[in-house]
Design brief:
The protein has 381 residues and is an alpha+beta fold. The chain is built from 8 helices and 27 strands. Helix 5 runs parallel beside helix 8. It is globular, with a radius of gyration of 20 Å.
Length: 381
């Protein structure tokens, strides 16, 4: 596997794009500013240089290149696989209610006996991430396929996200890359760092990822009570106070982030499901907690065993973490890279949701986490 990473910032590349890496078995992963016009010329050059390669990408709430955070830029990884196979599938997502079926279709189209992993990049607003991952799990439940990825971002504006489809930025799509072959290896890690506060509440009315009532009170009213003066800046200010959710049958807790609010209905739309009967609590985090969470993601057993591989690491963190950390956001990125050798190259982005396996092996939507995907091929004997 041959790997190179590039950064485009202030109308220039940090290095010349290597056309010798172009091939049908080359994957180009692009994480760019949601303001596509700022990176349009760079993307056109990518399309021109890598005409035979598979190109995927999405809009972000901040771009990661090595151990630094950038904005209004383009961070890309070019991976030429020498022993493995890759395959791209895309599906249009007309509305979030189609998320489960889209997950099923993508998993069905990608599944083969030697499928090792799937990397997903999805529209960040018009999707139910929980249902999308449930669709993948429905098809892959009896396999060991590792599914990771993330939802596109739009800084803290929540207006429009895009995914690269046929060399164009398009909303309302999900792209998924299948990674095949016994020589391909994938490691992963995901951790948060948020703590619960306030009282436990019960979801008394919801529909999939739209929350209407907590303890029989309008959900938005309850949320505004906790946010106080910050409520005027919803939905962006809600990123500072995500929701912990625990369903009765679950052994683990999940975190959910706000995507939108409806003042008329008093409802809140989240990135994933909020089922009726679930216990929820508000969450908050400190600088130290989030940095520790990023370090724990890179220190997970799956990642730590392979810290010296000649690999690409795809780091996906949540926009909520970036807002809390502010100018110290780079310190959580550095908390990841300090666990790696110089053999590992890193690109990534800040997202509206992260996709990673649970302890059970099933993938799920996570929010407010640092999620890592390590890719490498076996070395020649």
């Amino acid at each position: 596997m041959i790997r190179k990473t590039y950064l485009y910032e202030n109308s220039s590349w940090n290095d010349v794009l290597d056309s010798s890496l172009d091939s049908p078995n080359t994957l180009v992963i692009c994480f760019g500013s949601s303001a596509y016009n700022l990176i349009k010329n760079a993307m056109e050059e990518v399309y021109h240089v890598f005409t035979n390669s598979i190109i995927i990408g999405c809009s972000t709430a901040g771009e990661i290149y090595n151990n630094e955070l950038y904005e209004n830029s383009l961070s890309i990884a070019v991976i030429k696989f020498e022993k493995s196979k890759i395959k791209l599938e895309i599906q249009e997502l007309n509305n979030s209610e189609e998320s489960f079926d889209v997950g099923i279709d993508l998993a069905n189209n990608l599944f083969e006996d030697d499928l090792q992993g799937i990397f997903i990049l999805s529209d960040g607003l018009n999707v139910n991430g929980s249902q999308l991952t449930k669709g993948f799990n429905f098809i892959l439940k009896d396999s060991d396929v590792i599914v990771t990825g993330g939802l596109a971002g739009d800084d803290d504006k929540f207006e429009k996200t895009w995914v690269i489809i046929d060399n164009k930025p398009k909303s309302n799509y999900v792209s998924a890359i299948g990674l095949y072959g016994d020589e391909l290896n994938i490691a992963h890690g995901s951790q948060g760092g948020w703590s619960k506060f306030g009282i436990k509440r019960t979801v008394t009315k919801s529909s999939h990822h739209i929350l209407y009532e907590l303890d029989n009170k309008p959900a938005l009213e309850v949320y505004k009570t906790y946010l106080g003066l910050n409520s005027k800046d919803l939905p962006a200010s809600g990123l500072y106070y995500p929701l912990m959710i625990k369903e009765e049958q679950d052994t683990h807790e999940k975190v959910r982030t706000i995507l939108a609010i409806d003042e008329k209905e008093g409802s809140i739309t989240f990135a994933g499901d909020i089922p009726v009967g679930s216990d929820v609590m508000f969450m908050k985090a400190s600088y130290n907690q989030l940095i520790r969470g990023a370090n724990d993601a890179a220190s997970s057993k799956s990642i730590k065993e392979h810290e010296n591989e000649k690999a690409i690491n795809l780091a996906i963190s949540c926009v909520g973490r970036k807002l809390v950390l502010g100018q110290q956001s780079e310190e959580e990125i550095e908390a990841v890279t300090k666990n790696f050798s110089d053999n590992i190259l890193q690109v990534g982005y800040y997202s509206y949701g992260e996709i990673s396996p649970l302890v059970s092996g099933d993938c799920d939507l996570h929010n407010q986490t640092m999620t890592l995907t390590l890719l490498w091929e076996c070395e020649n004997d």
